[in-house]
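Protocol step 4 of 6: structure prediction from sequence.
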Amino acid sequence: MQTATRGRRGGGRPKLGKPNPIDVHVGARVRLRRTLLGMSQEKLGEAIGLTFQQVQKYERGANRIGASRLFDLSRVLDVPVSFFFDDMADPESGENTSAPSAMPEAGEPDPMAKRETLELVRAYYRITDPGVRKRIFELTKAVASAADAA
């Protein structure tokens, strides 16, 4: 027997004016991967059947990404679905247990979101010789260690 009243099921995101922190994190990870690939919002939207405006809303966390859409994004962006939840803070403690040890201080911009970082990573992966790439990686680590010691 069907009830006469129809309405929203409970459990949805309440409309409080600000996005859920998990949606913001997932959207930021979509933006990070898209940018690392050098893909525009328009191209990503075309690949999954959306407008670039919808991609913008996903990346800001304004709109929640459903499971099937997240699966589509993982295929187009060539990452596992778990990538979108990597480095996420524990909702209860607020601590990030999987974060790198060199996290920015409060109020500092995330270095992974800087254009300079993204361009550096893109250039690094354009180096086709694995030996050269490994030597550059080791050189970068050595220079960073020397700077820490100074």
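Step 5 (inspection) to follow. Residues 54 and 118 are 23 Å apart (CA to CA).
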